[in-house]
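Protein folds are increasingly written down as discrete tokens. With that in mind, we are printing a sequence and the tokens encoding its fold.
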Amino acid sequence: MLALIIVTGATAAAPAMADLASVAVRPLPNDRSGVVVDWRARSGTATVALRSGNLLAIHSIRRVQPGTRVRIDGIKWGTPTSGVTWSVAPQGVKWGIKWARNGTYASRLLSIRRAGGTRVRGVVVRRFGGGVAIGTPGGIVVVRMAVWLPKTGNAVTNAFALPVRGNTIITNVRFGPHGRLHGDGVRILATNGYAAIPISGRLSAMDASSRTVRISNISDPSFPVHTNLVVPSTIDMSRLAVGREVAAAASVTPDGTMRVDAIGANETFVAGNDPDNTQVAPPPADANTLGLLHQAIERWTAGRAQGEITDQAVYDGGLARLQRADAAARDGNRPAARAELDAFVMEVTVALPDKVKPMLAAQVQALAADAFEQLR
């Protein structure tokens, strides 16, 4: 699944490719079978576990019961094929699958037979006392754990560590009544840091004043997955609507809250592939820049307590500037953060020397200037 194929026009020679203009395609393994581990009617998506355990959220026309082994029909073509740009040129006949911009897929699924179990691999969205929610772009599955028995070979310092949000894990599951998944323990896989956390489901709540949303996904009623996320100012909340199916990517901020990095519609494959339906937030400023802003706020606050700022209005105005710069930097809104810092430096200069002591001004202005440069 590493090669990426982009259809660049509707003039492809193969008829099967003719309707795929502006749609990305990912290659499928030669063995195209998998097991459905979840079905979500609201978005018409079957979450399918391949033999490797990797999960694909596939928009499908017909409902497929969890526990069904399926064949992913995808798209078949030979080489060479005009109208296709290949990242890795294939040899002979290959299979691919339509891949939307929000990370979901579209394909007809052919039911083969019932499956007793399968392997599941994905990112931890939430851990419960007796289970874990595992995500992939556009899909979430819940695996119940009667006991937490970590598998041997955990790539962590403590072999008995429990998985946390953002870990990539793998587990073997069997299907219980009503298609519920029961796991036999997890293995935490070695990765470079924590993965982006895929969140999907119904946008069940939104608060524009606090810039927060809640996304709900109840694939297992005993373990409902309700995720509260902070929305950065670079995302237009007026384009979001409670009740819609969405797919999002999130990250955990230093204070432990969840931040929306991208969010978009997921009712259908077409909706998920429309670039106008997805908003992507720029990454937050790096830890060093945020550290400089934190130091500036602390020094400014201490200066007031120590009598180095004699005017309350100057102190309040400067603190508000620094706090807005810090919030904008955390949102990835670098222009707004730089504007606040530039205004702060100018206002402190005007307040010299009667309202702000020169030594304090020099120290805080230096911190603000360093942060300003790093935000370029």
